[in-house]
Amino acid sequence: MDRDPLEDMPAESRTELTAAVCAAIDVDPATAEDIIRSTEPFWDAMGRAGGLVDSWGGGEFCYVLPRVLSFVQTTANP
């Protein structure tokens, strides 16, 4: 089985991030976790591109990702 990146996060961060994604784009927790897991390769690539983002489990991820998802949702569905 593949590694679950959410398991690498501290429990408090995982809960905070899942709740923030749920609130930002109005999805259930299971969907939010699926979306979070799918963003890991993108987030890792941003880090390799010269430190554009914090590490995967960092607080920046917990703060920025919900805002990015909200922007995508509102821009794609005006």
Question: In words, what does this structure look like?
Answer:
It is a single chain. This protein is mainly α. Helices cover 68% and strands 0% of the residues. The protein is built from 3 helices and no strands. It has helices spanning 11-25, 29-48, 59-76. Helix 1 (11-25) crosses helix 2 (29-48) and helix 1 (11-25) runs parallel beside helix 3. The longest helix is centred in the middle third of the chain and has 20 residues, at 29-48.
Fraction in beta strands = under 5%
What do the pLDDT scores average to?
A: 85
Helix content: 55-70%
Sequence of secondary-structure elements: HHH
Separation of the first and last Cα atoms: 39 Å
The tally of strands reads 0
Q: Tell me, what's the shape?
A: globular
Instruction: List segments where confidence is low: pLDDT < 50 over at least 5 consecutive residues.
Output: none
Structural class: mainly alpha
Number of helices: 3
Provide the gyration radius in Å: 12 Å
Characterize the main sheet: none
List the helices and strands and how they pair.
Layout: H1 11-25, H2 29-48, H3 59-76
Helix pairs in contact: 1-2, 1-3
Question: What labels describe this entry?
Answer:
single chain, 78 residues, 3 helices, globular
The gist of it:
This protein is an all-alpha fold and 78 residues long. The protein has helices at residues 11-25, 29-48, 59-76.
